[in-house]
Every structure is written in structure tokens, then in C-alpha cells.
Amino acid sequence: MVSNEEKRARDALKKEAKFGEDIDLDAYHEGRRDIAEVESMEDLPEDTRTTMLDSGITPSGKGRSGNFLLMDNSVVHSAIMGEGVELMPLRQALKVHDWLKDYVWKAVQPDTDKYTAETYLQKADGYFIRALPGAKVKMPVQTCLLLKNRNTKQYVHNVLIAEEGSEFEVVTGCATTKGVEKGLHLGISEFFMKKNSKLTFTMVHNWSEFIGVRPRTSVIMDEGTTYINNYVALKPVKTIQTYPTAHMNGPNGVCRFNTVAVAHPGGVLDLGSRAILNAPGCKAELISRTITTGGTVIARGQLIGNSPGIKAHLECKGLILSDKGVQIAIPELEARVPDVEMTHEAAVGKIAQDQVEYLMSRGLTEEEAVGMIVRGFLDVGIRGIPDHLKAEIEKTLKETDVRGS
Amino acid sequence: MLEIENLTVEIEGREILHDLSLNVMTGYTTVLFGPNGSGKSTLLMTIMGFSGYKVKSGRILLNGEDITHLPVNERAKRGIGMMMQRPPNLTGVRLKDLVRVTSKGNVDTEKVAEELDMARFLERDVNVGFSGGEIKRSEILQLTAQDPCLILLDEPESGVDMVSIEKLGVKVHDLLTGPTHCAGWREKSGKAALIITHTGQILDYVEADRGYVMCNGTVACSGNPRELLAEIRKMGYQECIRCKINQANLIKENIVSEG
Predict the structure, then answer these.
(1) How many helices (H) and strands (E) does chain B have?
(2) Is the model's pLDDT at B150 over the cut of 80?
(3) CA A289, CA A348: separation in Å to the nearest integer?
(4) Coil, helix or strand for A344?
């Protein structure tokens, strides 16, 4: 029997997404589901491990509470090292926890667009992470989503549950292995945060020139929860369109989205973040720092104030370092009750000449001065990022060619 | 060290400096007086080479080399360093990182920061949210890290409270004189300074050798800085302007009578 949900998904298979270039899903092979498991991520080839490191993932698993690795559409590694947290493939978790069916596809609707529909119908696997009630998980759980083979489409479905009073951190690195220039990543992430829980979620995107990326993320936040989302995309990619949304349903929730991204020539980054403040005392802050060295950046942000006594701020700043680059900032504020405090600040443009010359007057060359200003500009966006990731990101930032073309 | 020859400078098509000439000799601290809008800051910004300050005619020579059209960093490389009146905010650039890059490891910037009561600012973004006095101290810290031969200071005392001005004055003094107080060292070390001062307060801390008074975009007068300051304090800049006009008239009359 075809469920109602399934029917809706089938009907949505041709439904174009609201934003972003329409991707022909038939142009890609389905990712393999039979890639052999690995005992340890350290057994992986060196270039794969390097890619992982660049994406914030520690192959040794040292200093981590759990490891999860998806290659194409195969879960090849899932291990738990710390206490207070559960981690396993979602398909397995659905067998273990009968109640989990009440969560899957509840935060993201299968018929949102063709990407969610296909991911639904493919019964995609992904990670299931659950922080146990009251658990203060000391070390982060790391998950890595790798595109291993060329022309592959990867479907991912992640579910994360922060039980009441839990506190934890998740790091996700998404990347392609060497030689995989073309591919597609569709990722559904549904996060559920119970009363007074706290989650810091950092995602590092490390794709390559011809990869298409369509993540669909929703976070359901209960009373007194804190959600911090850091998103970093510094490497070239063909097209990303994402609009993670926090539904702040309980009073006194706090959420913050930090976005740092570089659009390289030929790339289109359509990056949004949205907070829907549905309960009194909620606070949201959406900060985005983007650069174009020749690609297009669309920095969207939306704050919706549905309850009195909320406070929210949205900030998108974009630097254009090339004549060919395009920066589009679309901040939106929507207040549906009078007693709200909502502000936004958007600015796009080139680097101020007086700043460059000021540094040059201290002896820096023009190139050094521009580099320092650009790194500083992005640094504001990554200040919320956990320290253990900062070094890697700063290294990537140093290697990133920020000279305009 | 620095020779300015018949310099005419425009900002956005408006002529600000007219046929200005002056010298700063190696080892000498030269002070620039003048009323607001007389072109003092424009002169310093032009010497440093900031864009927007367009040299229409005349030359700037540093140790005999024509630097009139060199880029800013090339001038810095040749030993010019400047304290700006209103430096831009560098959001995301920490003061610590800037002075580290500037000093190239040659100066113990942490110690200098301590002495300037700026240690807690090292982690802060350059100039962001700094008060007037904090900007001055940060500029002096950066200059100390840079260790230039020709130091251009644009009103080092303005906006600084009475307590900080002493610390600042001492540091400016150190910057100009190096570790010893011997005048011979200054000459040997090849340092020189051109300091804009509105109030002359900085003269309580640094020994100035020569003074210029600027009016309406050119040099009106030069002489002993303390004497100049005393006269300006007594009679105001109006007198300098009148004096200059009288001088000019005198010259004109001479030319007329000679003709």
C-alpha cells in the first residue's frame, strides 16, 4: 500500500526548488550502497584522510565521542567512543528504536521539492545521533559525508535528537575524494532539540568545481534550547543552495547561524538561514560573511517574529574581489506582532582602499594587505567556531586564493 | 632626510597645498603648526602617499630619492611611518597580528603594549571601538613595531586625556630618540620626525629642533619651535597670516621699486 507521504513524494519528483538552479537528477548515477565497511578511518588512503582533515574530521577519532563515515550511499564506518550519546546509521536506528518513526520526515517535508522527494523515495541512509537526557557530552561527534565516485548522486538522511538537558557538539565534514570533479549531494537533516538542550553544529563543505549540493535542514527547538550553527564553505563548488531553518517553538530559545563562504569563479552559492521565532523570549542571530573571487553569492536571511518579546538580528556582509563576481544580499524581516525587536544590516562591495593603504603604510604589500583584510573579514564569521576546528579552517583560509581574478 | 620642493596638491580637484617647500633634516624633530584647515594633515598624507592626494607639481625627496609617485608600502619600506589622525577600522584584524607582521619579530611588541597600557587591546580588532586616546596609543604601538626613520605624527596629543598623554609623550620620545637620550644617537640612527601639533603639548615630551607655521596650504613662517609656539599662543594664527601678507607685500613693493 502506498502511504499518503509516499504519494506526495512521488507527486513532487518533478517539483523544482524555490531557489537555485534546477539540477537534472537523471544526469547522475545512483551512489553505491555496497562499499565495504572500514574498521578504522585511519585505514583509508592518505589523500582521503587529508581531505577529511581539511573538512574538520580527525581520521584517528582522537578527541571525538563518535565517528561516522558515509561514502557515496554506503555507511562504511560508525563507531561510538564517548558516553552519553548514541550514534548509528539511520536505517539501523529505525529498527532499534520503534519511536523514531515519529521523527523522520517530520521536520522536513518529503514533498518540499524534487530533491527531498527523491531522497525520501530512495530511503536514504545517514546518521542518527542522540544525546541522552541530561548528558553533557564532552567531545564532539564527527560525521563525514564523502563523494567517492564520479558522476554519483549521494542521498543522505540524518536525524539528530538532543534529549532534555543534553549538551553536545557535532562536526560534519562534506567532501569529495580526489578525482571526483562531478557529483551531486542531496542531504536531509532533521534536528530535534528537547527542553533546555544545547547543540553546536559545525559543517565544513569541501567540495570541488563541478559538484552540486542541495542540503535541506530543519531544526525544531523546544523551550530553553540553544542551537549554534556554523557553516564554512571555502573551496570551489559548482552550485550550493541551502536554507536551513530553525523553528523556535519553545520560550527563551537561542539560535545563532554563522556562515562563512567563498564563491570561486564559475560557482554559485545560494546560502540562506532562517529563524522562525514562535515563542516569547526567543533570540536569534544570523551572521554571514561571504566573498566572491569571481562566482556568485546570494546571501539570504530571514527572521520571522511570530511572538511578542523576541529579539533577532540579521547581518550579511559581502566582499567582491573580482570584476566578474556578484554579491546579492537578501535580508528579510517579518514581524507578525508589534512587540518585537528585529534588525538587519547588509553591505556588499569591494575592500575599502583606505584600509588597504593603512596596512601598506605599515610596510605590507598590497597583496598582503588585501589578504589580511579578507581574512579578518571572514574571521568575524568563524569566531563562534569551536577552537579545535579553527586551526584547520585558518589553514584553509590561508591557502584559499582570495585574489580577485 | 626629507625635502619637499614646491609641492602643489589637489584633493578631488580642489587645490589644498600651494607651492609648498620645507626640509626635515636627519636627526631633527620638526614641528608643524597651523590653524585648522591649513593643510597640515594633507601634507603628511601626501608624504605617506595615500591615494586621493594628487601631486600636481613639485617633488618629495627622501634621502635624495624622488619618492613623489612611489606606492605607500614602498615609502614605508624606505623608512617612513605615520600616525594617522583618523585611521580606518579593521574589523577582524587583531592588533596583535598587525604588530606582529609589522615588527617582523624585531621588536618586543608585548612589552611596548604593556608600557602603553595597551596589552588588553592586543586581542581586539584594530581601531574598532577604540577611544581617541586608545587610537593614539595603538598608532604609537604600531609605529614602534615598524621602527621608521622618518616619523610623521598627526596631532599625537589630540583626544588624549591628561593621564595618558604622559605615557604617550614618553613613548613618542622613545620612538624619536631611541634607547638613549643622547642627541648624537639620533643623528647616527638617522631618525627624524615631522609632527603636527595644534596645542604644542607634545613639546613637553619631545625636544623639537625646528618649527614651521602653515597657513592656507603653504608655509607661512619657520623658526625655533618654542618661540613660534609662544608667539602663536600670544597672538594667534591671525598674526602669522598678517605677517605673511606683510612679508609678501614687502617683497612685492621691493620688486615694484626695483622695477
Answers:
(1) 8, 12
(2) yes
(3) 10
(4) strand
pLDDT of residue A20: 95
C-beta neighbour count of B124 within 10 angstroms: 17
Rounded to the nearest angstrom, the minimum Cα separation between B228 and chain A is 31
Mean pLDDT confidence for A327-348: 96
Chain A residues whose CB is inside 8 A of the B107 CB are none
Contact B88 A373 (CB under 8 A): no
Q: Which of B50, B73, B94 sits opposite A364 (nearest CB)?
A: B73
A337 pLDDT more than 70: yes
β-pair partners for A335: A305
Q: With CB atoms and an 8 Å threshold, state whether B93 touches A373.
A: yes
Which of B73, B84, B87 is the closest to A366 by Cβ?
A: B73
Contact B72 A365 (CB under 8 A): no
pLDDT at A141 over 60: yes
Q: Which residues contact A168 (CB under 8 A, 6 or more apart)?
A: A65, A84, A85, A131, A135, A136, A137, A140, A141, A162, A198, A199, A200
DSSP state of B202: G
Across the interface, do B73 and A380 touch by the CB < 8 Å criterion? Answer: no
Confidence band, pLDDT 50/70/90 cuts, at residue B203:
confident
**Nearest alpha carbon to residue A90 among A113, A118, A59, A119:** A119
CB-nearest partner of A355 from B81, B88, B145:
B88
What gap in Å lies between CA A119 and CA A73, rounded to an integer? 11
CA distance B183 to chain A (A): 26
Q: What is the pLDDT of residue B182?
A: 47
pLDDT of residue A405: 41
* Low-confidence winner among A177-186, A299-308, B81-90 (lowest mean pLDDT): A177-186
ipTM of the complex: 0.90
Decide if domain B2-229 falls under CATH 3.10.450.50.
Answer: no
Which residues of B fall within a CB distance of 8 Å from A378?
A: 92
